[in-house]
Each structure stands twice: as C-alpha cells, then as structure tokens.
Request: fold
Amino acid sequence: MPETGGKTDINALLRKAGIAEETVEAVISIDALLQNWRRRSMKRELGQRALVDLKIGLDLAQLDVLIAIDAPIGSYGEPKIGETMVATVAERLNIDPSRASRIVSDMVEQGYARRAVSQADARRTIIELTDSGRTVLEAVRAYKFLIMGDFLSSWGADELASFLPLLGKFGYWSDHSEHANEKFADDIALLSAQIAASVKAKTTEVA
Reply:
C-alpha cells in the first residue's frame, strides 16, 4: 500500500488501480465539492428560507413528510408511485416508523394530510395530501424553482444541455460500489489492515 508518513497516498493508490491522472484529480476535486454540498444540504438552507419567507408554520421534518406523501416521480428512485402508507413514508425518508407515524398524525391533525381507505385493499389505510397540504408543497416548489431558475439563467444553453444528463449519470456512481469492492478486494483488505494496525498502536500507547 503506497504510504506517505504512515498515511495512504491517495494519488498513488488510484494510479496503481489504473485510474488516469486526470481522473484522479477529478475524483479528489469532486469529493471536496460533495463534502461542501453535503454540509450545506444538511443545514437545509433553502428549505429553511422557504418556510420562513412563505410564513409556513411547519418545520423541515414535517415538510419532508408532506413531500414523502406526495412523492414526486423520481424523487425516491421509485419507477412508479402507488398508494402511500405510513410505512412508505418511513421508508422514503429512512426514519423510524414510529417517528413517521407521529409526524403523519401531526399533519393529519393540522389538516395538511388525511387518512383514506386503499382502493386496492379495503383493510389498508393510506395517507393523502389535503388541498392545504398540496398548496403548501406547490408553494415551496415554486419558491425553490424561482431561485434555482434565476441561478441557472446565467448558464449558457450548451452548459444546461450537458449538465443534466451528466448529473443524472453521476447520480448512480455509488451503485458501482459492489463491483468495485470485488475488483479492488486486495486494496480494500490492505486499507482495513492499516486501520487495524493503527488502532492497535493507539491502544498500546494508551496502555
């Protein structure tokens, strides 16, 4: 394993894997951009501003549940959106079912959502948006699209034409991990061994 001062030399590791120099530079730059994007996404700056500017008396968790109930096509990687249950909301948002149930109940009590009987199975309860809930979502989306549209207005037609398909293609990069895990099994094993050795050395120092 290529190392510098006891640490993995990422450049050397990727070159050893047969990844071209320009791709190595792109990987490192993209990772830095994604870290910054993730930090800002976790803060949910745009969503927070939308709730404040539109004077919506909801928090982000409640807004997320309304979005999950509505489930715009493509938002959750589902090829076809069917009926939505509390369990569906929990799965889409990757939250505990009890938390999803609690927030859905809040939305029902506030009049943004309602419970209904499934058309496919009368024993099953589904969740739907009310007119008020849909009005809130449409307003938030309009707010977001106004800001994003204004930002993208400065882009050239060729930039827009190339950006969307490339972004869509990049969105599936993590799906490649299973194949990559097999391809670089030896390198991954060495990285794991390096971590184990570091932990062992740290434990020895403390002792």
